[in-house]
Design a protein that fits this description.
Layout (H helix, E strand, L loop, with lengths): L2 H14 L4 H11 L1 E9 L2 E8 L3 E2 L4 H30 L1
Parallel strand pairs: 1-3
Antiparallel strand pairs: 1-2
């Protein structure tokens, strides 16, 4: 994924997922990066608090973040499937 595509994905995610410090703190920590600082939202710059610990985020971290989310979704789907299948055998 080239840098322009990563930027576009990040911008789209900000449109879909509200820019919430609480929503990004676990992801930053899991990736070992720091998020925050000046950000551009709806035509205005805002100073966001620092989130996570580690090196500053870079463009390559977007792919790592996408993989982290995908793995989390797959885990929850597996848990849901086990609960559904387990419920059917108990009935």
């Amino acid at each position: 994924m080239d840098a322009d595509t990563r930027r576009m994905v990040a911008d789209l995610l900000d449109l879909v997922i509200p820019p919430s410090p609480d929503g990004r703190r676990p992801g930053a920590g899991a990736l070992g990066i720091t998020l925050g600082g000046p950000a551009f939202y709806h035509g205005h710059y805002k100073q966001r608090p620092a989130l996570g610990e580690g090196r500053p985020a870079s463009g390559g971290d977007i792919e790592r973040a996408v993989r982290l989310v995908q793995h989390g979704v797959l885990l929850w789907l597996a848990v849901g499937l086990l609960l559904v299948l387990g419920g059917e055998t108990l009935a």
